[in-house]
Records
---
Amino acid sequence: MNLRDKPELRDRLAAEYVLGTLKGAARRRFEAYLHGDAALRRTADEWRGRLAPLAEFAPPQRPRKQVWKRIAQRLHLRERHPAWQFWHSESLLFWRWLGGLSTAAALGLALVTVLVLVPGPGRQAPQPEYIATLADDKAQPVLLLTGDEGRRLLTVRLLGNVAVAADRTLQLWAVPVQGNPRSLGILAGRESTLALDRAALGAGVAMLAVSLEPRGGSPDPKGPTGPILYKGNWVRVM
């Protein structure tokens, strides 16, 4: 297959390769293309740069017992083998390895984003220039944001169940490096579409945040009055 004249396919394969969803012979063929195609390597590196920041939202996860069992089987280990003791130890190396699993889990979450960013064959989909994952104080991802600068649209999707009292509302803010927070709108339901102000994007925005406010939004035009429940940052993907 000649990939040089197929930019959309090159981009899609690079994204799937970085995510780890490109498997078997297809992955080996793509790796062979990488060796002789500097532009394709740059595309893969760009996808790593887009998706890697999402890993910071992944909470630590302890693998299930079945995972340890499969590792032992593949490495031909017995339970009393010293190497098996290493995997169960509380050593620094063990927790670094476990952190790697958390990173992979976070990139798996990013697959949701790729389904938005990379349309499949025969599909036409708007491609947002910015994405953000907002997490709670336990680093659990709660909201997925996509920003389409060209169409000036901001889409906010709930990734889980969020209970809000009838007399309260969730309000989204862009917190600038300098100055007062700027309200981006009120969130309603599992998906909200808001107008996107270009001032809410780019290096001037230090953080995105969601506060719990009285019904109708914060009564203070200078910023939130309730607690900050979720926060995160933009990642430019286009």
---
Amino acid sequence: MPSPLPDPATLDKRKTQARSWFEKLRDDISAAFEAVEDDLPATAPLGGRAPGRFVRTPWTRVGGPDGGGGVMAMMTGRVFEKVGVHCSTVHGEFAPEFRKDIPGAESDPRFWASGISLIAHPQNPHVPAVHMNTRFVTTTRAWFGGGADLTPVLNRRRTQSDPDTIAFHAAMKAACDAHAKVAPYDKFKAWCDEYFFLKHRNEPRGIGGIFYDYLDTGDWEAEFAFTQAVGRAFLKIYPELMRKNFTTPWNDTEREEQLVRRGRYVEFNLLYDRGTIFGLRTGGNVESILSSMPPVVKWP
């Protein structure tokens, strides 16, 4: 059964806590990614280039400043071919055709949503692409959602026995296990495998991770702590995987393989991704929403 909303003062406090956390996590991840750019040795592929830095662009939700907005943060560098780390806090009313898809919106279309969303497309094909987002949403209900998933772009690395895969799954499992009361790992891992699946190709997008939505157990503090743990786990594991792989040389065949696999990313995000659909239907910033698209892609 869904939990009733708390009193307005408590709900406002929770909104502030969630938004502050997402923005802090954005700052911490941005700093960590810039440090990865700095740490690429000069002798590594593209090591002679200048390290990248994030450029932040504020935006206002369609409909005016009363609907909220966010900040788009983008970087192109010598390790990251394209990475976006975005935060937004928006509110308003769901369009009539969208209300039936959102818990609590059929009886009252008003909503508030805050979250962080990132996607990274590295230069080096040996470094896996990654996606992570977490959010807090309120209608006549309130819940957390999000997760993180890894996409190696080389065929030989897209296996459950690959060391990067094992390390990433272990990080996500640890985040769940520390909050097992509200975060059953097996369920969230299976949900991720099901969600990030290209039905039209009958293949997974990557090697998975965790995914959860409509997390509303009645213990807001535990749910918030778990959502924070997902962010911290990602902040630790992904820079580690980048540093492990970013000095490995690559060839034209591996670059071609990377570009073809990126095409799968585009297909998923345009056909199935809830975040893309939610953002476009709620007056989000189009450039921010579509920044998940890789900079260079091939469909041979």
---
Amino acid sequence: MSSILKVDTIQNTGGTTGLTIDSNGFVLPKAVAFSAFKSGTQSISASTWTKITFNTEDFDTASQYDHSNSKFQPTIAGYYQINASLAWLAGASTAALTRFYKNGSHYKNGAYIYHSDQSLDDYQVESSVLVYMNGSSDYFEIYGYNIGTSNTISGGGEISYFQGFLVGV
């Protein structure tokens, strides 16, 4: 008995390929993933929610991340895992917060760090959230907040980053 191997693709109504079935029968989903980071420092004013700029891309598999505006706007509807890490320099404030913004508005709180010992130095906080994105108008951004005095977010791909990937539709 002979078998027939066929490579095929499945497209959404917009005509873009959603997945491919290769000649071995493996389903290869369209990979939507990005990783961006700060290339330098960013000052954060005291008691003000400030959009964090992630201006350098490690990768962007589907051209969904806008590094000039530091926002992720996928064109495929589905559930996305979003990760953020902020490295705060010279921990002079008593608290620092990370917040996820969807479509320009507060969506979920991320990491919150508080200390009463003003001698603490640098610290790094990570946050994650799972969110549904509609594949057309929805977009995501990261904000930071500092209580007390002004502070600085440190740059570098290993410490201050913004990442996301499609988990499922």
